[in-house]
Amino acid sequence: MLANMRYRGRLCLKYHRPFWKLYLKYRGRLCMKYHRPFWKLYLKYLCAACVISFISMFCVTLSEDLVDWFSSFHTKIDVNRIVQEFQKDKTIYENTTGADEMFKKIRILCLVITTSGHLNKQIPVVNATWGTRCNKILYVMCTDKKQPDILNSCDVKESKSHLTRKVRFMLRYVYLHYLNDYDWILKADDDTYVIMENLRFLLSFHNRDLPGYLGYHFNMHLKQGYMSGGAGYVISRSGLKKVIEGAFKENGCPPDGKDEDLDIGKCLQMAGVPPLVSYDKYGRETFHTDKVWQHFYGTVPQYLKKYSWNGLNDGGGCCSQFSVTFHHVNPQTMLLMHQMLYRTSVYGRQTPTDITDMFHIAKVLPVL
Ligand SMILES: *[C@@H]1O[C@H](CO)[C@@H](O)[C@H](O)[C@H]1NC(C)=O
Ligand SMILES: *[C@@H]1O[C@H](CO)[C@@H](O)[C@H](O)[C@H]1NC(C)=O
């Protein structure tokens, strides 16, 4: 195997035996004229290996996505099979009257920002899980595929640095075609998981005919702050009307850029569309910028501490019982969340549908 490998020094390797056997015993025709101890020979490589593993460990602790990437090598689940199983749903529900009534009363148009590369990955999973609970869903991407639930965005450049233009394009499209058909417009990514029933419950405390928007509230850059893009945000139809008819026509409301959430937040602020309170009466957030366990364990990225308008809580205080979104959810995890939320019940316990004080009917007042 490694017979021709040359090492420094006068170590001649004429061996034909596999590499590992070579070091089993040192007899044989291996002429070792080396004065340095054997291990020193490999010190250089040993050090390099240590440094590389240290750096990768460091990176792994930094990024949950990297952990996902590594774990994807040993946990291969058949996403398509599970999607099909979910479509033949055999879960028994005690009573979905509360959710069914809300579905008719609070109509939500979901806009999922995605790319054609995700047509066979994320999109079928979204479409089989929370997507089914939108009153209408549009997948926004640039593709040749023609389908009623795909909004073709080829007119805007398809790249991360043109996200703002993409979102403006789709909001304008909704304004032109659907303004009166839906009460709220939800913007989500294809790695956002949305619990639509809880979103409707939260929105039942707010008025679609008043300008306003809700999401995970960041306190940076703007006087009224803005909502995290990945956690998803929802704009009242009155708010949509105001921002399209007003701010989108003005200078100062960014026409394009990569920080879609900040840019749209700027436009909404200019248009006089205020952030509404989205945490529950115990101060627990409903929209979340990361996965449920990151919020629960308190292992969210460092920036969030600085960015959070309401402050960070981990453990039991991390998340409302009526949480609405989680972000950075890959297809496997999305299926798992769906399994736990909709296909697992705790026998004999049911939440009432007539809770009237869980959320506040308030605007967030800007910090002066
Ligand atoms: C289901 O719940 C609603 C209230 O949300 C109630 O009015 C109705 O009677 C319940 N139906 C059944 C079959 O329990
Ligand atoms: C989503 O699911 C619906 C209903 O099963 C289907 O008609 C539609 O084509 C799917 N959309 C995409 C983009 O896969």
Describe the fold and architecture:
There is one protein chain. With 368 residues, the protein is an alpha/beta fold. It has a domain at 96-342: Spore Coat Polysaccharide Biosynthesis Protein SpsA, Chain A (Alpha-Beta Complex). It is 35% helix and 10% strand. Bound molecules: 2-acetamido-2-deoxy-beta-D-glucopyranose (NAG) (2 copies). One 2-acetamido-2-deoxy-beta-D-glucopyranose is lined by residues 95, 97-98, 353.
Question: Which helices and strands occur, and which strands form pairs?
Answer:
Elements: H1 19-22, H2 38-41, H3 43-62, H4 64-71, H5 79-87, H6 97-105, E1 108-113, H7 122-128, E2 136-141, E3 150-152, H8 163-178, E4 184-189, E5 193-194, H9 196-203, E6 213-215, E7 217-218, E8 226-227, E9 233-236, H10 237-245, H11 260-270, H12 292-297, H13 303-307, E10 325-326, H14 331-342
Parallel strand pairs: 1-2, 1-4, 2-3
Antiparallel strand pairs: 4-9, 5-10, 6-9, 7-8
Bound molecules: 2-acetamido-2-deoxy-beta-D-glucopyranose (2 copies).
